[in-house]
């Protein structure tokens, strides 16, 4: 079965780039630099659904994206999570948080989204794609 | 420098066992089967502070604890996260969630804690220690 991106994840985010295992996407919320990593395999819900090789690859890609956010944005804290209580397709959140952001120190899940302008989303996608490609 | 557990993490949880890298602890909240993994190394805040070997070991121990919760409790969903906006010492949450638990589908962070009775905490610690040791 081929990989199909969940419709909610697709609607709520923009494709940044594809790594060996995962799609990297930007959540359409201008309040937080908020990336998603989604393994391009079918029928995944939990990390335990991945075989050892896939799991190692996922974790190496999480580290790449974490380093990219740190390098580009120097956040006060990274938040990294897989929750999936609503959208069960396996996906990881990697979010750059600042002491003075809109919700700190609260987590961001469940917050209202402030959509990017077309220009701002295009700039952010380009920016993150460039830095991820530098770090790979 | 030797490892020192953050005082808040210590106060809010019970030691279950020590793996090669991490302490495994039970959060003192009887509403959710909620475990912590804390690498026993000093001065860690982000996953990117770990070297490659330590990072691989952390991820293997996350998978062990995830499998233990699945094996023992058959949750509807696992929630796995490192947030650290309040307590910055690197720690991972691994939580077994059910469709009918107190907060589902909301995340649990920031919720009120319902402390275990002494008997219930002792039973849970023993239960999780036993299943983790079976899976290692």
3D structure, described in words:
2 copies of one chain form a homodimer. With 136 residues, chain A is of the alpha+beta class. Helices cover 33% and strands 22% of the residues of chain A. The first copy, chain A, is built from 3 helices and 5 strands; from the N terminus they run αβββαββα. Chain A has a 5-stranded antiparallel sheet with strand order 1-2-3-5-4. In chain A, β1 (13-18) and β2 (22-27) form a beta hairpin. Chains A and B meet through α2 and β4 of A and α2 and β4 of B. β4 (77-82) of chain A pairs antiparallel with β4 of chain B.
Keywords:
homodimer; 136 residues; alpha+beta; 5-stranded antiparallel sheet
Shape of chain A: globular
For the terminal residues of chain A, how far apart are their CA atoms? 28 Å
Q: Number of helical runs of chain A?
A: 3
Helix percent of chain A reads: 25-40%
- Which pair has the most extensive contact? A-B, 30 and 30 residues
Runs of chain A in which pLDDT lies below 50 for 5 or more consecutive residues are none
Average pLDDT metric of chain A:
97
Strand content of chain A: 15-25%
Concise overview:
The structure is a homodimer of 136-residue chains. Chain A is built from 3 helices and 5 strands.
What is the fold's blueprint, element by element?
The structure is a homodimer of 136-residue chains.
Chain A: H1 7-11, E1 13-18, E2 22-27, E3 34-39, H2 52-73, E4 77-82, E5 92-97, H3 118-135
Antiparallel strand pairs in A: 1-2, 2-3, 3-5, 4-5
Helix pairs in contact in A: 2-3
């Amino acid at each position: 079965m081929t990989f199909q991106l969940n419709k909610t994840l697709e609607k709520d985010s923009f494709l940044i780039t594809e790594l060996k295992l995962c799609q990297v996407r930007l959540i359409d919320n201008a309040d937080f630099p908020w990336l998603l990593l989604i393994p391009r395999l079918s029928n995944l819900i939990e990390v335990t659904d991945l075989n050892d090789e896939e799991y190692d690859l996922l974790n190496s890609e999480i580290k790449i994206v974490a380093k990219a956010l740190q390098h580009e944005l120097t956040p006060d804290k990274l938040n990294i999570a897989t929750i999936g209580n609503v959208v069960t397709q396996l996906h990881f959140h990697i979010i750059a948080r600042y002491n003075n952001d809109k919700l700190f120190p609260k987590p961001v899940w469940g917050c209202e989204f402030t959509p990017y302008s077309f220009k701002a989303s295009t700039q952010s996608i380009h920016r993150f794609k460039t830095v991820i490609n530098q770090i790979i």
